[in-house]
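Before our next group meeting I need something from you. Please put the record directly below this note.
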Amino acid sequence: MRPTVYAIDGIIPVVHPTAFVHPTAVLIGDVIVGARCYIGPLASLRGDFGAIRIADGANVQDCCVMHAFPGQDAVIEEDGHIGHGAILHGCVIGKNALVGMNSVVMDGAVVGENSIVAAQSFVKAGAILPARSLIAGTPAKVMRDLKDEEITWKSAGTAEYQRLAARSLTTMQACAPLSEPEANRGTVDAGTVAPLHVTKAG
């Protein structure tokens, strides 16, 4: 299954062979997707005003939007993790950082490495947010330092998305639906990472 890719001004997106880009995702222009990355269904990565760089091991999940501003690239560093429906505009997401679902990170903002931006947060333009921080709110601010167990949990979730890239490359295929479930229906190989509130509860 080939991703939906467009050149503009003669610049063609680049996708590493070990990355998975869903066919409904759209990559335009100056986009580079690194090794072991996962780009989910309906993600839009528009490198038509500037560069989009997604480093090795990062993921950009369903319905996310990435766009660069002139002179302000959109960058996800190694092992970055971008939750469903997030918007990244001309910003930098640091190594092993997580941006939660439906969050918006604006032009010139920098999210420090090993940080977590909570779901539905708004990171304003030019905000510089430190490493190992829990960031939340509208506008977003640093709530507290992250605990080691929270960073470990985040890294485990990102590893599952790296595994999902490999699973998708080897087993995902377009098919017709069944009219009813099989008698011996199996389950998908979803791994063992639980939501953070479950992990904290022990």
